[in-house]
Design brief:
Helix content is 65%, strand content 0%. The protein has 165 residues and is an all-alpha fold. The longest helix has 30 residues. It contains 6 helices and no strands.
Length: 165
């Protein structure tokens, strides 16, 4: 019978780190580990993404000094609406324990609140939009949701491909 000491040593060398990870339990993700990554939690990444988009929009608009106050008012209102919307979300765990009719009532109430937030955002946007020049309006239309250049951003928070402009 022929022995294979070299192959056996290589196999053991390759399997040792795998066995160490399996033994330590590091291979198992903890609950909620999906939401954590090297760049932070999902909420933190989403917040950074929103800030980047707002900074990009502000830069592309090339606002005059007279328009800066309007921008600050508009962006503060949008952030306020976003926070109110986040606070009004129903608790998923509590919703699971409710009977179906009550869950539906809560969902309807939440959707009505979302409608109110959209109307507030529309009013603030119309006020800001009125202060923009025609060229700035074109840029605003392109870079805000559903605009011509807004399609490059997926809802997951990044460009569809590295060279997207």
């Amino acid at each position: 019978m022929k022995s294979y000491p070299k192959a056996l040593l290589i196999s053991l060398a390759l399997l040792t780190p795998v066995a160490a990870i399996a033994e330590s339990g590091e291979a198992k993700p903890e609950s909620g580990a999906y939401n954590q990554g090297p760049a932070g939690s999902r909420a933190e990444r989403r917040e950074r993404f929103m800030e980047e988009r707002m900074a990009e929009l502000r830069k592309e608009l090339k606002l005059t000094s007279a328009q800066e106050a309007d921008w600050n008012t508009w962006s503060a209102k949008i952030k306020e609406i976003k926070e109110k919307k986040k606070q009004s979300r129903p608790d998923r765990e509590a919703m699971k324990n409710l009977p179906a009719p009550e869950r539906l009532e809560k969902m309807i109430a939440h959707n009505k609140a979302k409608q109110t937030y959209l109307e507030e955002a529309l009013a603030a946007t119309k006020t800001f939009y009125a202060t923009l020049t025609p060229e700035q309006r074109k840029v605003f239309d392109e870079l805000t949701p559903f605009g011509e250049r807004a399609h490059k951003w997926k809802h997951h928070g990044g460009p569809r491909h590295p060279g997207a402009k």
